Amino acid sequence: MVIGVPKEIKNNENRVALTPAGVAEFRRFGHTVYVQVNAGLESGFEDEEYIDAGAVMLPTIEDIYGIAEMIMKVKEPIASEYELIKEDQLLFTYFHFASSEALTHAMIDRKAVCLAYETVEKADRSLPLLIPMSEVAGRMAIQEGAKYLEKPQKGRGILLGGVPGVKPANVLILGGGIVGTQAAKMAAGLGAHVTIMDISLNRLRYLSDIMPPNVDTIMSNEYAIREAVKTSDLIVGAVLIPGAKAPHLITRDMLALMREGTVLVDVAVDQGGCIETCTPTTHENPTYIIDDVVHYCVANMPGAVPYTSTVALTNATLSYALQLANKGWQKACRENDELKRGLNVVNGKIVYKGVADAFGLPLDDVTELLQREEEEEVNF
Ligand SMILES: NC(=O)c1ccc[n+]([C@@H]2O[C@H](COP(=O)([O-])OP(=O)(O)OC[C@H]3O[C@@H](n4cnc5c(N)ncnc54)[C@H](O)[C@@H]3O)[C@@H](O)[C@H]2O)c1
């Protein structure tokens, strides 16, 4: 298969969809990989490294879209890319269709095959291509929180781990999933006193087993949160209710219970936030202060560490991309339900319920569509 990797052009997106190591894997299976000049530069990968791995560099984004059967990207195509997309071209990237009707209609019109990273789903309902970014954001939440606890950043002026003779900071983590677990590990490793709250008792049992002694687990409820915020120095919002807006676990009135310089990092801000006073911020201007409480609410935290994020993402996407390239998308999706669940828009038809429901558009059955494709292959 001919694979194309364009340079990301969405504002502030520094990741790239394929590393030189990924190119070498595609080459090992006999595929051809075209990478746009400078596509990997912001993630720390020079063109020479791609060439050494067997890629062919092309100067423009038009060249890449013009030649590739499968486009591998990070972010959804933006308006200027729509017209470059060809009928039947396979696009493997994050789409988040439900948040953009314009993108949905554009992909229907282009008759492309859109396989979305965010809906590739395992039988246990986990989302293997979202997990790496949650891991990055969870770990970053503590790094950023520690920074904003410093006095010059308007924080409480407390070192997370304390020093001998001085007690450490209290870190409260709301939600003990992927983000929460990674945040807890980092905070505990730095010596902070950590509390994780979750509504799943099974999850709390698991975390209680694996976490070090400076991590407590507490059942999440309004009473417990109200008590905990009074003595917390850093609070990380990491809850998720799949398919729904995050619940406001920290309400505006609770800010009055907090000490001056408490830092809130709402990682869940991309789903509406679990802290009522959080609104999305950017890496250029990550924080603001309300009632003497520092709010950090960056919606794309992994964007600040493109090297780590790129490698983490491609570690997860590559095995799926190889299946698509080795078998063709139709056979790969027929044989692997995880990939099949990633199909969102195919040749002008919506095949993912969440997208059809979001805009009241008709839904095609993906299994029937794959069968039709198979019959056409046989007849051909
Ligand atoms: N800002 C960013 O850059 C960024 C990056 C990655 C992920 N995220 C977001 O971080 C959030 C968490 O993602 P995740 O991968 O850890 O999800 P996850 O599903 O692994 O974990 C969510 C946890 O929240 C718990 N939960 C649900 N309701 C709760 C409540 N009322 N109180 C306490 N816990 C509750 C669930 O039981 C679950 O354990 C998501 O909104 C995700 O989109 C943001």
Automatic annotation (TrEMBL):
Top-level enzyme category: oxidoreductase
Example GO biological process: L-alanine catabolic process
Domain named Alanine dehydrogenase/pyridine nucleotide transhydrogenase N-terminal: residues: 4-137
Entry binding sites for substrate: R15, K75
Superkingdom as given in the UniProt entry: Bacteria
Keyword Nucleotide-binding: yes
Native species: Larkinella terrae
SMART domains associated with the record: AlaDh_PNT_C (SM01002), AlaDh_PNT_N (SM01003)
Xref: Pfam families: AlaDh_PNT_C, AlaDh_PNT_N
Family annotation (PANTHER family): ALANINE DEHYDROGENASE (PTHR42795)
Recorded catalytic activity of this chain's protein: L-alanine + NAD(+) + H2O = pyruvate + NH4(+) + NADH + H(+)
Catalytic residues (UniProt): H96, D270
Transmembrane segments: none
UniProt: NAD(+) binding residues: S134, D198, R203, S220, V239, L240, V267, A268, V269, D270, V298, A299, N300, M301
GO molecular function: alanine dehydrogenase activity; nucleotide binding
Residue ranges occupied by any Alanine dehydrogenase/pyridine nucleotide transhydrogenase NAD(H)-binding domain in the UniProt entry: 149-297
GO cellular component, as recorded: plasma membrane
Cited InterPro entries: Ala_DH (IPR008141), Ala_DH/PNT_CS2 (IPR008143), AlaDH/PNT_N (IPR007886), AlaDH/PNT_NAD(H)-bd (IPR007698), NAD(P)-bd_dom_sf (IPR036291)
Protein name in UniProt: Alanine dehydrogenase
